[in-house]
Amino acid sequence: MAEQGEEDREYREYRRLEDCEEDSPLGEEEEEQLLLHVTEGPTVHHPLQVSLTPPHIYHFHQRNGFACVVLSDVLELVQFLFVVTFSTFLLCCVDYDVLFATRPLNHSHVPEHTKVTLPDAVLPAPQCARRLRGSGWLLFLLVLAGAVWLCRLVTALRRLVGYWEIRSFYIRALGIPAEELCNHSWQSVQARLLALQRRQPLCVPRRELTELDIHHRILRFRNYTVAMVNKSLLPVRFRLPLLGPVVFLTRGLQFNLELLLFRGPAALFQNTWSLRPQVKRAGARRALARGL
């Protein structure tokens, strides 16, 4: 009973927030404008138009640079097209009766036990097109898939501009050529970033940027998720008969939780590190909780 009371007290203290209208000590309003300005020379009067955050710099390094990132995005687009095209081919252009030998190819000229090859089971292009046009739901799914692919293409093109800016930042500000990025650990990149911050202001927080600040910005969402799981605030633990307590967290459930808490229209965060101002106001928490 004493241990249970101690856990309840810890749980209540964990959920209690400060009833204040002010921002965090780091100054969330200033953190919302956190930008990294890359200069072409040792002076700061001619900055490049680039907006970077530690998570962008970190993920660019973990994905091994500009060429690998762009190639990955291109292959994802090609993979999507291949899956849709091949699925459509299997649905509309294959005669499965011939493929599984439930119907012979030709009753008069082909022996009964003639081996069936793949070209024998593929329907001619005109017949395949007729079957495709005759299926309304399949046409609808193809149109929907095409819209999704176009959205992913536009997103990839937009990210390409950001990737190029990060590449320029690595080369001009951190002194790491693109071909040598794979030879530098993240600790090395972080040390160069902090050294550059000390020589020339790159961001606008009230105090000097540290390794802990960078880690907080990179792992902010994950830290919140881990803390909520540890405190049983997320529905991932269940008690099953005979099996006892189990943890169940699928990719789909994880995606929905992240969309609800971090990336959706009613999310707690307005970017990768900053809470929305209304979330930090005590008077608005009950209304926000009902809306969430």
Automatic annotation (TrEMBL):
Task: Give the transmembrane region(s).
Answer: 137-157
Protein encoded by which gene? Atg9a
Task: List the protein's name.
Answer: Autophagy-related protein 9
**Where found in the cell?**
Preautophagosomal structure membrane
Family indicated by similarity: Belongs to the ATG9 family.
Set out the biological process GO terms recorded for this chain's protein. autophagy of mitochondrion; lipid transport; piecemeal microautophagy of the nucleus; protein localization to phagophore assembly site; reticulophagy
**Region spans: Disordered:** 1-25
- Identify its membrane topology class: Multi-pass membrane protein
* Keyword Transmembrane helix included in the entry's annotation: yes
The UniProt regions of compositional bias labelled Basic and acidic residues, in chain numbering, are: 9-18
State the protein's purpose.
Phospholipid scramblase involved in autophagy. Cycles between the preautophagosomal structure/phagophore assembly site (PAS) and the cytoplasmic vesicle pool and supplies membrane for the growing autophagosome. Lipid scramblase activity plays a key role in preautophagosomal structure/phagophore assembly by distributing the phospholipids that arrive through ATG2 from the cytoplasmic to the luminal leaflet of the bilayer, thereby driving autophagosomal membrane expansion.
Q: Which InterPro entries match?
A: Autophagy-rel_prot_9
UniProt keywords, alphabetically = Autophagy, Lipid transport, Membrane, Transmembrane, Transmembrane helix, Transport
Asked if the record carries the keyword Transport, the reply is: yes
> Cellular component GO terms, alphabetically?
autophagosome; phagophore assembly site membrane
**Listed PANTHER family:** APG9 AUTOPHAGY 9, AUTOPHAGY-RELATED PROTEIN 9B
